[in-house]
Amino acid sequence: MIVLVLLTIILGTFIPLQTATNARLQRSVNSALVASFISFVISTILLAFIALGTGELGNFSSINISDIPWWSWTGGLFGAMYVAYITFLFRTIGSVQTIVLPIFGQLVFSLFIDKFGWFDMPQCSISVVHILSVIFVFVGILLIVNQPVSSRFKQSEKVQVDTKTVSQNVSKKNKWLPQISAVLIGVILTLNSVANGRLGVGLSSALNASLISFIAGTLFLGILCLITHTLGQTVLGFQRQDPWWIRLGGVFGAIFVFGCTYLIPHVGVSALSVLTLLGQMALSLVIDKYGVFQADKKTVSVQAILGILIMLGGVVVFNFL
């Protein structure tokens, strides 16, 4: 069991890895949309090979497609929107906030789904414990986004930032706008999970559902690239002078989806969500503090770490009590 716990925590680190590498790829292709498209193409190819190797590819012989609700096929669209926007947000608010802020949106929206029984889910009452756990998560988020800003360099060591970089940073006056949007994107992620989960039940295969989701997301992003005349920038993501690892975002995404498919029967949904979250937060701190994958270094204060611990406690209470 200890091995499974460690594997689940490690699996959670693949989310910030995907986001960080996609953000670096964005710098090469000059578009979060194109970077996400490349990532989805790679994820789709890998999942297709996995499905082929396991013998699940296209195994729909005993499935009645008409019994599957139409909205369960939309998971790929929501997943594509989530990955594209998170890739954009990473360079704006950093790795930690990009990971933790959507969690609040996920929890609140999940409460509404449980309360009203949306998406064919069983209707459940909202307990005081659930409300308290959401408050815990909110308090943790406040501590994280309002952590004190301190200089990480001595005056003589400060790096001059060019005009282009400055223009990409959000002004202090409007910094709450991307943070609020990050919370809202958590709703999009929940819609992705609900749709994919229902599709997996309908197809009797989580792997086939994930593959179909990625195919739909890839087509959606490809069409958007065509409409915005950015599809030609895809070739920029494969230039030799770029670091080889910038194309690994799709690999990390595919491994995460396949890992969840494998581990859920062994550790359960609640344990999976909490343990993967622990891995996400831990690696996000490392990425922000040390600028891993050429990310901008950001101050990680004691207050931010305390906020993450409070958030984690709230998520544990939400899932287990």
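Next protein, fold it too.
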Amino acid sequence: MKFIVFTVLCLIVSIANAQDPVPFKGEVEDLQNKYDTVFDASQETIVFTGSSSIRMWRDVQERFPEHQVVNTGFGGSQASDLSFYIYDLILRFHPKKVFLYEGDNDIFAKKKPTAIIEKIQNIIEGIHRNDSTTRVVLIAAKPSIARWKLKGKYKRLNRKMAKLADDTPSVAYADVWDPMLDGNKVKQDIFIEDGLHMNAKGYQIWYDVLEPFVN
């Protein structure tokens, strides 16, 4: 009888695990497989990572051709997800610089700015434990048409990120929020149809902001 109960419990756990896989595992494995074939460990590396605004920056390597750029953005991610995959998406590349974009989806998921900052701080600490000389650039949460009603929360998060950068050695804050505005409203012509993700005009703004940090 005990054996039957144990077997049933094992079956239940197995089914539960099958229905609840580790989030983003497949996408992270695909990124690992991609860079296993093209990554040159002998070159200095810059990692761009975070949620879909990074993942969809298709030409980021071409934008910075004089550097080896690794794009490990994974769509829909939050700061806690990046913290979970910190080795796979950041540390394994031994980067000299890390450009980090998280917080956008966290706010949309109703997480508080203070809790988000704690996770971002954990990521920074993990990077610096691995190599204290690695430069981390926090990319401000961007404004968007789709999430404009949450602008107050995004602005609070950005203020906290700017302060975290000011208070932390080897960390900088890159403000993409203000350049994406037209007066008091978000620019309308820098997004694709979903009103959330950027088109080429939007990424040109990001390039103009981030280029000084890269070089």
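About the second fold: Residues 21-214 form a domain with the Rossmann fold fold (CATH 3.40.50.1110).
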